[in-house]
Amino acid sequence: MSVLAVQDLRVGFRDGTLAVRGISLDLGHGETLGLVGESGCGKSVTSLAVMGLLARGAARTAAGIRLAGEDIARASERRMAQLRGDRIAMIFQEPMTSLNPAYTVGDQLSEVYRRHRGAGRLQARDRAADLLARVGIANPGLRLAQYPHELSGGLRQRVMIAMALMCEPDVLIADEPTTALDVTVQAQILRLLQDLQKETGLAILLITHDLGVVARMADRVSVMYAGEIVESGTAEALFGRPMHPYTRGLLDSIPVPGKLRPGDQLKAIPGTVPRITAAFRGCGFRDRCGLADRGCEDTIMPREEGPQHRYLCRLSSELQGQAS
Amino acid sequence: MIRFILRRLVLAFAVFLIVVTVSFLLTRLSGDLAVSIAGPNATAEDVATVRARYGFDRPLPVQFAVWFGNLLHGDLGTSYLYREPVADLLAKRLPVTLTLGAVGLVLAVLVGVPLGIAAAVANGSVWDRLIGLVGLVGQAMPSFWLALLMMIWVGVYWQLLPISGLDDWQGYVMPGIVLAASSVPVLMRLTRAGMVEALASDYVRTARAKGLSWASVLLKHALRNAAMPVVTVAAVQFGFMLGGSVVIESIFALHGMGFLAWEAISKGDFAVVQAVVLLLATIFILLTLIADLLNALIDPRLRIA
């Protein structure tokens, strides 16, 4: 059963830009869904839209956003505030700035529990110490009394994770959780997320541009481009048989040790994500795609490549067929 | 934290010493004091007598040493105008000015900070612009003019408040409002700027992602980070209110320190001028010190220094 089901989510900005164009996501209990794409593709907007945290001037519509069975697409701000931090939590890319510099770690952890569970000061503090211990922070008592600037980046991200898990949410949205961290710390944080998921059955929506992270963590993957999901499938299918040219481009631009000789150029996708408005038709990737022709300016119908493996490209199956 | 406080104290004391020296020198350098005290009809002999009596014939360093020595004993000299020890004069006048300043500051903070918060929340909207406009008008309006307007309308036509004097607390209300009026726009703009920045910050996004109430997001998470420059400037504004209440005090006939200073300057009452300058400077130093300590309480990152 899915704990988070998003149907036909759309987000538009006041200047006419369509940041998210009809996205559907489905996230099951204890599952990790990787949402992949480069900067500006709309993946962070998607997560903020699900949380109900879009900035003023951004308009959201959706056929449905179901969180543990409850439709929150039209929930009041009051109801959303009750759910945020309790049933659905979020961690962010920048652990350096995501914690409030003026309050102690203990205070910032406790307030979630006090708010959603009506717990007293001491009870919330005990809970905070428990959570810090669970995210692998030694000496929680000391850390509770410290301020964010006294902690390293890795510790701060652990604190953020502890904060997100204070109320044992059903869903955790992790928006580039390891991007700002050292590689070794990255691996620790990812392992921590996996361990916590095993313990609690947490469903994780992992948003990242890093395919290495996705390969390691995700059960299923959705590749996002210019506000659309251009390909989705199990991690196995998607990495084993990438269908969309953009997905292939992403995979090709990962440096693999031993594959490249010194002096060789790493493959890159030329150009950047275009700005899409309501008048736009066809494939958003065509300007950067080596395969594209006039036909790509018409509306693209989704195709299937095996169960649960869908993609948005009219040309690549023939090409894939020729290659194999 | 203790090291931080000690450092600030040492710094404050150093500034105090400089101020003592400057306030002494300034009065000595502003012409021959003996001539102005003796008056326009005095003979050369009279001037010489005055000069000897006040010790102006001795070398400057000696004069300074005597004055500084007396200062340490709490003796600020004698006003030749009032024939009263300056310390007694100040003791009578200072409470009036301090009360007036406090009323002005409290009013300015109570109006300016909430307006700034409201403007930041309504950032870019009609309300934001309206509040900005009110601030602009408030800042552009000269305080003596506002004082006169208020006296006419509130005091004479509506008869809500006394127009001058200090018979009871009501006498402080109108001058307090006038004093506050010039500070409100400053505090408002700073609060607005700080809040706009804080509301766009990652930690406010985190606070919202935690499902905290709007009040908690706004007043706990954002305001505390926006408060620092406001505290610093509020302290400076308070200093201005104390030092700059000359106009207000004379319009509303309040016998505070501003009035005393104005009188002393115009009549060459050097002992009073010196003492007032010294006192105001000391108050400024203390206010800055208090603002620094308050900021260290607000932001833990400052406590390391």
CATH class of the domain at 96-268 in chain B: Mainly Alpha
Task: Give the overall average pLDDT of chain B.
Answer: 88
What is the end-to-end distance of chain B?
8 Å
Strand order in the sheet with the most strands of chain B: 1-2
Q: Rg of chain B, please?
A: 24 Å
Name given to the CATH homologous superfamily of the domain at 96-268 in chain B: MetI-like
**For the largest beta sheet of chain A, what order do the strands appear in spatially?**
7-8-9-3-10-11-13-12
Query: SSE order of chain A, as H and E?
Result: EEEHEEEHEHHHHHEHEHEEHHEEH
Helical amount of chain B: over 70%
Q: What's the helical proportion of residues of chain A?
A: 25-40%
What's the number of helices of chain B? 13
Descriptive overview:
The complex is a heterodimer of chains A (324) and B (305). Chain A has 324 residues and is α/β, with parallel strands linked by helices. Chain A has 12 helices and 13 strands. In chain A, strands 7-8-9-3-10-11-13-12 form an 8-stranded mixed β-sheet, with helices on both faces. In chain A, strands 1, 2, 4, 5 and 6 form a 5-stranded antiparallel β-sheet that branches. In chain A, strand 10 and strand 11 form a beta hairpin. Chain A is globular. Chain B is flat. Helix content of chain B is 78%, strand content 1%. Chain B has a domain at 96-268: Orthogonal Bundle (MetI-like fold), CATH 1.10.3720.10. In chain B, strand 1 and strand 2 form a beta hairpin. With 305 residues, chain B is mainly α. The A-B interface holds A 51, 53, 80-86, 89-90, 92, 94, 97-104, 111-112, 115-116, 147, 149, 160, 163 and B 201-203, 205-214, 216, 220-221, 224-225, 298-301.
